[in-house]
Amino acid sequence: xxxxxxxxxxxxxxxxxxxxxxxxxxxxxxxxxxxxxxxxxxxxxxxxxxxxxxxxxxxxxxxxxxxxxxxxxxxxxxxxxxxxxxxxxxxxxxxxxxxxxxxxxxxxxxxxxxxxxxxxxxxxxxxxxxxxxxxxxxxxxxxxxxxxxxxxxxxxxxxxxxxxxxxxxxxxxxxxxxxxxxxxxxxxxxxx
Length: 192
Prior knowledge:
The chain is of the alpha+beta class. It folds into two domains: 2-36; 47-169, Roll (Flavocytochrome B2, Chain A, domain 1). The chain contains seven helices and four strands.
């Protein structure tokens, strides 16, 4: 009787093959999501397959004083005009490396205006034509709109496969500065 149990366990059934295949597929998807931020092993995307991301992480570990908090003046150096430096933008104080999109954020790019700056107010109201709106100063704007919009932009840059967080901005005090005028005729991005 013990021999017959051994014989039946030595045979694979269709269900066993399905379980093995399903387990390997799930395991592969989990590993893929971990390394590429997609479940399909799309090796062309994902910050975890990007050599520059690992260079940044390594240099951050070796030279921790060079990364973390930056002043607006320090951030302005990373505007894409110096090809030896990465391109950074900041959204609500969080700095992202967007160097992989030089054609967008670099000189001559459609959104070069954001490179090397924290223009969070523009992300909210889209008033590109009024220079006083090019600021991180969010005073005077609807708090719920500001929170919702900046959270969506921050998620966009955080989840983007080619961008990563590099630090945060140390903002100067706004106590002695007048807030910008309210602008209602800005460009509103769909879904933001």
